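Bit of a strange request maybe. I'm writing a small parser for structure token strings and I need a real example to test against, not something I typed by hand. Could someone generate the tokens for this chain?
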Amino acid sequence: MCRKHAVGIHTPLCDLLGIELPIVQAPIGSATCPALAAAVSEAGGLGMLALSWQAATEIPRIIRETKKRTERPFGVNLVLEWDQHERLSVCLNEGVRIISFFWGNPAPYIQQVHEAGALAIHTVGSTVEAQRATQSRADAVVAQGWEAGGHVRGDVGTFSLVPRIVDQVAPVPVIAAGGIGDGRGVAAGLMLGAAGVWVGTRFVASDEAAVHPLYKQKIVAATENDTICSQLFNIGWENARHRTLHNSTIAQWKAAGCPANGFRPGEGENIAYSADGRTVLRYSDVMPLPGMRGNLEALAMYAGQSAGCVSDVQPAREIVRQLARQATERIQACGDLP
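Reply from user aminoacidic:
Good idea to test on real output. This should exercise your parser:
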């Protein structure tokens, strides 16, 4: 149950995480950075850093830079497709007290999180995964609907998944994810019984997000029909479904009859260069990042179906406040219904 609060809406998740608003910035891969995470936290939400692919030696610098920008809580996300024990130890030693996991079994990690006095959150795509996470003593679970951008765990839409998981794992807080791009989506998630929402695509289109401007503008221009869930951009992360914006790489693949890996048009082709000169191949899992050059439109541009709700690029602080304001208005309007 949410209640009106001095700064908008407040739920038990806010008390658990030490935040003002039940709005969590999803760990949107390379798009996350200290500036974005800190801005979201300063606005009252929970900023997140995605550190799954960072060298362990680089993690202290990133965490410390974020701490310089905010004294409020922020979290770190680690993808369990790879061993994350070393990175987790570094994060905990740096004083991070909110750790989220995705795409694997969190059980071998959660005890270490709790022993450090930190909280563990795990993202799931089904009730079975949610039950396993809570049995492993996760402090909260993220129920990720199929509409979500980036890598997608399950097959069920947010509106069907969230209430099922809420019922199955109560009283553990559930965070709704997938298809939430404005305050109406925030209100809907809370009405479904979630204690908070997980917002990714909207924050990719923020001033602070560490992606190329082309990527942000493609999200702004997108409709709800302009994404596809596939395993196409698999170089770097095999056999993992993901939702991206339609682009020329997808169009060429479809025109060729959607062939399997090894037979896709343009495989092995270098289509872009990173800021430091490294080559980026077609079908790489790399998104368009600042300083890149080349055919950036053909790269993976992760986005959820909520891209249709994004109409502009804004500072992250304004996005958080707008989400909270719109959600409060929707909840109040529901209270006025006969």
